[in-house]
């Protein structure tokens, strides 16, 4: 697991080495500081005057100054490591995500992707910039301090060393045995938090149903249960907390007592005694730092896995090696197309064939799950068919460069994504070099210009929280304006006017259908009024075209289409 | 988009200025635990310092020729110091967690209570749902503060003072030497505070922007592919990442400086103690045996202060959180629930010249003299542009707010005279934005009638045309709703809400229709559900779709808080007014 975490970020060895080196130098300074004080004290005890101790005290001052500088550098170094790690992780994940394309959101929920790319990156950063250096510093730093002590008195070093080793050993032992219980506690707390959040978010509903009191009681009971459950496990888990404290303090105390006894009995010189006094504390310092950073390792372990999974995903569609020229006519042909989202599942489309002539207006209708949206996803090459071919102007779309293919389409879909930024930015995304006049013309055609003009900042109004709050219909109209601005030869409207009121819808339809802007148009819609105007209607059911024809024709046949329309018309009659 | 949750709250204006200490009365009930937490914390810090001090004292005595036998009592004292430190540490860990968990009960449930009183009013400029996550995070911050940080702060004052007293016993000059360093260490974060604050804000701002852009990129993968803008976005993210890195570097440089300055001050204290001690030794005013103690104590006394300076930076954040929590705790209820009158048998709902505005001053009224009657079994549709006041009518009938003029009556009785819970049991509500709790579908339907049997739940679901799709789910009625549960479409959620409203067995049903269109299956199911309810309940429908409106017994057209037209579909069409324009547009 941790090996693959290291592979994730690639070469940061240089920055990492600098962090570790600085950390070790800091530990060495702490130790040197202790040694110099011990030397000064030893001189004094041996009867020397203050004058002989002074150089050592001066050396102490130098060590302290040096260490301050090193600490500063170390903070800067760990920031630099953090930056390198984050920049590299983000770059890697985001560019991979963009190659995967929109298909990935079928496999992973956008919420999970967000966690991976935002919180996950942060979690891994501290792992590299704080935790890993702390591990190395703990290993070498503790050894170094003990070695210095060993040099003057091996007995003290050995005794202290026992406690120093017991510290991580106790931690390790605790981890193996108790961490699951501890993790269970965090889960229980998380569950309580989620329940509370859910209750508050639904509070208006609770009020309406006079259920607030019952919910409050449930909440209080859960809080009590949480407390009881957590306190019961804490009794056990807190032992670790006490144990590490016990090991540090008793380690220092026992060694000092042992050395004091020996010097009083005449078995020890003053220098080792004073070195023990000042170094014992330093021997534990890197371990305490490691313990502080420990939880970052824990969260990093959880963060790395989804990243690795994401990076292991292969893009569902590939670029052709030798792209074919862009077609010059825009008819569409589906030839025996079969597609399933995952192998083994039922096909979303099976042996689907149909054609749309250039400049034809075709409507797709059918119950949900019939394959209407899948068909659009295939046409845009978010996925490739398992079998069969899709052609535009006679060219297999797999032979076109992806961005060339997608340039051919203007798409307005049911859920309109607007970007953070001004209204103009959102329109311009379709055509970065559009003139102000072009933007206005598109907005007018989509019947959103008057609304935009009525905003205080007009086209410069920011969309979102602090800016213009747009209704579903307004968002859809912006999206239509965007598609019109793109002025692509093929237009796909996927429930494009579902939130627009009927008057506006009709006006927009007129704009789209104006002879000057006549183009190949594919519409998915439920409203009878939208569908009825189509040149041809394809009725899809279970991944296949079951009926085909103009509205009057289909309405007469009393088939699937007639049933669908009747359901919409007369259910409440 | 019409939602009933709007309007600012006057309570926000007198937002508390008390800050962190303002919360103390809220944790009054946990006073004992709080005291023990702080006390054990001080004892634990003091015990650790005492261990080092006693060790140094012992070393000093041993090195200056004390015979071994006389050291034994010293060993005993050392052992006691260790025992106190470790015991207190363990005790503190336990008692502080107990405090933390009882604060969860007090604070989190208190937030629920406060928001329950205020909903659906805006609090702190946010809707309840949006505020929920902020408030619960704040509560966690507070728990952490009281359970863990507060003891450290008190310890950082008391323990160094104790060390000063011991030093003063050795020699007053020893204490005087340490004092300026204590002040220095404690004040370092304050010299750099404004820079730290500004840099911190800049970093958070850049980070927020980068994260927002990342989220946006994920959410708009489809659009990016369609418009071929992947590389532009990647470039923008790179640029954001670079700006953030630069800001974080500046932050790191300053944080490193602060770190170094504090460390240097601590070393300075030991150095000063060494020099002053030497001089005292030379002058014969300090026994050599006490010199190690003076050195060790001067360094270690600063440790508790250093520990809290690391957290001092977060105090601003804590204060802001405390203020938000206090604001929520002091929310007043929008209405008074002191009605005692019995619920009338007649369940005709009527509005009599109802006026309503959120704010007493200035603002335009939302409702400006609305009168309507909804007798049992009838279906009335409210139509009109968004902002006309349709949803407000529902909110007033449910007494989320009280009218500011006129009256809403149930069976002739002013609803302000009725007990609130009883009133709400008479009116079931299907909101436009349906909230399903993260529980089973069955429990969601049971919300207004928790004792209902599964058979009753199913019957309501059948009436609401929801049974077929629920039964088709792998876990049926046990399927959990919410984020981890089934992904239900808007139409399906709406029908579950209708089933919920039906099971509540209220004689009046208010239905706020979703403004966006449903697909034809869902549309048909919704209309079928409506047809099956009609006549059985009084229906007040805030309608957007002609297919719904057409079937109402009466249609009221609202404009700017007034009823401008009313009648049946046919009657209104003849009038050729506001309604006709709307209807003809939908007809073709």
List the defining traits of the structure above.
heterodimer, A: 573 residues, alpha/beta, 6-stranded mixed sheet, 4-stranded antiparallel sheet, elongated, B: 588 residues, 10 strands, disordered N terminus
Describe the structure.
The complex is a heterodimer of chains A (573) and B (588). With 573 residues, chain A is α/β, with parallel strands linked by helices. Helix content of chain A is 65%, strand content 10%. Chain A has helices at residues 2-9, 13-45, 50-100, 104-107, 110-152, 154-201, 203-208, 212-264, 270-312, 372-379, 402-407, 423-428, 436-445, 449-454, 472-486, 502-513, 528-532, 551-557, 560-570, and strands spanning 332-339, 349-356, 361-365, 387-392, 395-396, 409-412, 421-422, 462-463, 490-494, 520-524, 536-541, 544-549. In chain A, the strands form three sheets. Chain A has a six-stranded mixed beta sheet, sandwiched between helices. Chain A has a four-stranded antiparallel beta sheet with strand order 2-1-4-5, covered by helices on one side. In chain A, a hairpin with a 2-residue loop joins strand 4 (387-392) and strand 5 (395-396). Chain A is elongated and about 115 Å long. The model of chain A has no long low-confidence stretch (mean pLDDT 84). With 588 residues, chain B is of the alpha/beta class. Chain B is built from 20 helices and ten strands. In chain B, the strands form two sheets. In chain B, strands 6-7-8-3-9-10 form a six-stranded mixed beta sheet, sandwiched between helices. In chain B, helix 3 packs across helix 10 and helix 4 (172-191) packs parallel to helix 5. The two termini of chain B are 25 Å apart. In chain B, 48% of the residues are buried. Mean pLDDT of chain B is 84; it is low at 1-17. Chains A and B meet through helix 2, helix 3, helix 5, helix 6 and helix 7 of A and helix 1, helix 2, helix 3, helix 5 and helix 6 of B.
């Amino acid at each position: 697991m941790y090996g693959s975490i290291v592979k994730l970020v690639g070469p940061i060895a240089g920055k990492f080495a600098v962090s570790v080196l600085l950390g070790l130098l800091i530990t060495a300074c702490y130790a040197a500081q202790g040694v110099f004080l011990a030397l000064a004290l030893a001189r004094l005890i041996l009867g020397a005057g203050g004058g002989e101790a002074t150089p050592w005290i001066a050396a102490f001052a130098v060590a302290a100054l040096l260490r301050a500088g090193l600490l500063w550098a170390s903070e800067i170094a760990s920031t630099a490591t953090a930056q390198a790690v984050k920049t590299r992780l983000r770059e890697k994940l985001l560019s991979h995500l963009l190659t995967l394309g929109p298909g990935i959101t079928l496999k992973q929920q956008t919420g999970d992707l967000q966690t991976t790319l935002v919180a996950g990156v942060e979690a891994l950063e501290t792992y590299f910039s704080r935790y890993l250096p702390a591990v190395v510093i703990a290993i070498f730093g503790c050894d170094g301090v003990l070695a210095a002590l060993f040099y003057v008195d091996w007995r003290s070093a050995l005794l202290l060393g026992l406690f120093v080793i017991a510290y991580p050993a106790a931690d390790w032992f605790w981890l193996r045995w108790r961490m699951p219980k501890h993790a269970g506690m965090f889960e229980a707390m998380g569950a309580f938090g989620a329940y509370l959040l859910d209750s508050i978010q639904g509070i208006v509903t609770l009020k309406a149903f006079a259920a607030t009191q019952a919910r409050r009681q449930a909440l209080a009971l859960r809080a009590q249960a949480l407390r009881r459950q957590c306190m019961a496990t804490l009794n056990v888990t807190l032992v670790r907390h006490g144990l590490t404290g016990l090991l540090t303090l008793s380690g220092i105390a026992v060694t000092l007592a042992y050395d004091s006894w020996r010097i009083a009995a005449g078995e020890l010189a003053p220098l080792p005694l004073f070195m023990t006094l000042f170094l014992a504390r330093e021997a534990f310092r890197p371990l305490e730092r490691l313990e502080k950073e420990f939880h970052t390792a824990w969260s990093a372990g959880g963060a790395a896995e989804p990243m690795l999974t994401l990076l292991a995903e292969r893009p569902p569609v590939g670029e052709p090696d030798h792209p074919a020229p862009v077609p010059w006519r825009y008819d569409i042909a589906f030839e025996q197309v079969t597609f399933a989202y995952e192998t083994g599942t039922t096909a979303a489309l099976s042996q689907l064939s149909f054609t749309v002539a250039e400049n034809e207006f075709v409507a797709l209708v059918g119950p949900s799950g019939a394959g209407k949206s899948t068909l659009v996803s295939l046409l845009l090459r978010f996925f490739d068919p398992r079998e069969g071919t899709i052609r535009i102007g006679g060219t297999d779309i797999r032979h076109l460069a992806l961005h060339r293919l997608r340039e051919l389409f203007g798409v307005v879909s049911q859920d309109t994504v607007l970007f953070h930024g001004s209204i103009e930015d959102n329109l311009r995304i379709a055509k970065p070099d559009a003139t102000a006049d072009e933007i206005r013309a598109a907005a007018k055609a989509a019947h959103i210009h008057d609304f935009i003009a009525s905003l205080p900042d007009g086209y410069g109004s920011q969309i979102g929280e602090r800016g213009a709050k747009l209704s579903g219909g307004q968002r859809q109209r912006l999206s239509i304006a965007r598609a019109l601005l793109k002025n692509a030869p093929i237009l796909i409207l996927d429930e494009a006017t579902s939130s627009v009121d009927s008057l506006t819808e009709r006006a927009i339809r007129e704009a789209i259908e104006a002879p000057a802007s006549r183009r190949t148009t594919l519409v998915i819609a439920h409203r009878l009024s939208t569908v009825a105007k189509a040149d041809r209607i394809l009725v899809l059911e279970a991944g296949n075209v079951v009926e085909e024809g103009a509205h009057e024709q289909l309405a007469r046949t009393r088939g699937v289409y007639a049933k669908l329309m009747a359901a919409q018309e007369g259910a409440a009659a | 988009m019409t939602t009933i949750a709007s309007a600012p709250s006057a309570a926000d204006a007198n937002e508390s200025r008390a800050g962190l200490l303002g919360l103390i009365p809220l944790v009054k009930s946990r006073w004992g635990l709080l005291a023990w937490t702080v006390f054990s914390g001080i004892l634990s810090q003091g015990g650790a310092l005492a261990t080092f001090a006693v060790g140094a004292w012992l070393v000093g005595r041993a090195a200056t020729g004390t015979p071994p036998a006389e050291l034994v009592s010293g060993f005993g004292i050392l052992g006691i110091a260790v025992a106190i430190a470790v015991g207190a540490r363990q005790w503190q860990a336990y008692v502080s967690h107990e405090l933390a968990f009882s604060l969860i009960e007090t604070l989190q449930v208190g937030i629920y209570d406060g928001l329950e009183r205020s909903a659906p009013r805006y609090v702190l400029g946010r809707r309840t749902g949006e505020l929920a996550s902020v408030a619960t995070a704040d509560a966690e911050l507070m728990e952490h503060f009281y359970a863990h940080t507060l003891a450290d702060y008190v310890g950082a004052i008391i323990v160094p003072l104790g060390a000063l007293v011991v030093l003063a016993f050795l020699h007053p000059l020893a204490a005087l030497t340490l004092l300026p360093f204590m002040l220095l260490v404690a004040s370092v974060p304050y010299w750099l505070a404004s820079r730290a604050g500004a840099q911190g804000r800049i970093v958070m701002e850049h980070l927020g922007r980068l994260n927002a852009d990342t989220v946006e990129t994920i959410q708009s993968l489809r659009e990016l592919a369609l418009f071929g803008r992947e590389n532009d976005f990647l470039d923008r993210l790179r640029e954001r990442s670079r700006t953030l890195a630069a800001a974080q570097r500046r932050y790191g440089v300053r944080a490193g400086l602060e770190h170094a300055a504090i460390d240097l001050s601590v070393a300075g204290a030991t150095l000063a103690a060494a020099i002053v001690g030497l001089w005292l030794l030379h002058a014969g005013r300090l026994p050599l045996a006490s010199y190690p103690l003076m050195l060790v104590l001067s360094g270690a006394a600063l440790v508790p202060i250093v520990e809290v300076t690391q957290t001092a930076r977060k105090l601003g954040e804590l204060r802001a959180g405390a203020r938000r929590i206090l604001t929520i705790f002091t929310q007043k209820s929008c209405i008074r629930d002191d009605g005692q009158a019995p619920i009338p048998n007649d369940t005709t709902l009527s509005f009599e010249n109802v006026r309503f505005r959120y704010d007493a001053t200035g603002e335009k009224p939302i409702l400006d003299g609305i009168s309507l009657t909804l007798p049992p079994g009838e279906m009335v549709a409210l139509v009109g542009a968004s902002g006309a006041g349709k949803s407000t009518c529902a909110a007033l009938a449910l007494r989320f707010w009280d009218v500011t003029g006129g009256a809403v009556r149930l069976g002739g009785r002013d609803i302000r005279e009725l007990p609130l819970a009883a009133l709400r049991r008479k009116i079931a509500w299907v909101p436009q934005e349906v909230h399903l709790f993260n529980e089973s579908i069955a429990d969601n339907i049971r919300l207004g009638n928790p004792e209902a049997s599964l058979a009753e739940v199913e019957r309501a679901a059948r009436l609401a045309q929801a049974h077929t799709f629920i039964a088709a789910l792998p876990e049926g009625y046990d399927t959990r709703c919410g984020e981890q549960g089934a992904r239900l479409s808007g139409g399906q959620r709406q029908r579950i809400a209708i089933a919920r409203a039906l099971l509540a067995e209220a004689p009046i049903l208010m239905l706020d229709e979703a403004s966006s269109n449903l697909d034809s299956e869902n549309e048909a199911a919704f209309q079928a559900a409506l047809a099956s309810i009609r006549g059985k309940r009084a229906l007040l429908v805030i309608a957007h779709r002609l297919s719904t409106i057409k079937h109402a017994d009466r249609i009221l057209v609202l404009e700017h808080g007034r009823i401008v037209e009313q009648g049946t579909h046919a009657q209104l069409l003849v009038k050729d007014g506001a309604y006709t324009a709307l209807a003809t547009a939908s007809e073709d």
